[in-house]
Amino acid sequence: MKVSFHGHSVVKIQTAGKVILIDPFISGNGLTDLVASEEKPDVILLTHAHNDHVGDTVELALRNNSQVVAPVELANYLAGQGVETVGMNLGGAKEFEFGTVKYTKAFHSSSYTTPEGDAIYGGMPAGILFKAEGKAIYHAGDTEVFGDMEIIGNRNEIDLAFVPIGDFFTMGPDDAAYAVELIKPKTVVPIHYNTFPPINQDPEYFKGLVKGAEVKIMQPGDVIDY
Q: What are the coiled-coil residue ranges (predicted)?
């Protein structure tokens, strides 16, 4: 399994001969190393409906016949755009041929703004717990810290966690470090920072706060091999 980071909250997982993209915000993302027209995901997993997470989903899915897994209201909207979707909800898990996807709580908001300026309700925001090849990867999505992260950590041996540290729209470095104590991952990667001025942060400051986990500050394109 290969897991790579591509700026903002974009994560790519390669497993079981499949390419999985989480929150593929590529076009308009000044930090990413990806080019939307060159990506060929088999599967797209979405945490919530905000445009900086849905990103290039429709274009990618239509061009590559990608399966899109998303919170159910967002999945219903994307299905109306011609995309093949699987709509899930918090606490629900499904075993796919490429691995198991479970949606967890996140505390945030969730709406998609169309090119015409209309706001589409995207359902509950979520985190994603992905399991494959004996590994568990937790993508927290956009969220504040919350006590039930301890449940996620207690009930799952998490190998790798991606947590937002940008503050302003999500938890900042101090709260994110506390979240790591609750989640108890072996390795944690900070995400959702430095993409826009309001979320500028120093990941080294976050690293210095974290206890009990290895912190990897990944640059766009960096890969973790399992």
A: none
